[in-house]
Write a structure and sequence with these properties.
With 69 residues, the chain is mainly alpha-helical. The protein is 83% helix and 0% strand.
Length: 69
Amino acid sequence: MKELAVGYLKSKALSDRDKALMSLKLLTENAVGIGDHSTGDFYKNLDEALDLLIDAEDRIETLGKHFGT
């Protein structure tokens, strides 16, 4: 059961990291692809993607530290 729980948590963190990196790449390299957003929306989206990336990487590191994954 422990392995399944830790596996789920790591998979979720890895997925969130990929989602954040994809968002940051889209926003920094293809900002035209986000459509009609104000600069306020753009900054908010950047902040949200960075927060998700930091959170995901922290979770990956913490799982590795405590569970050796």
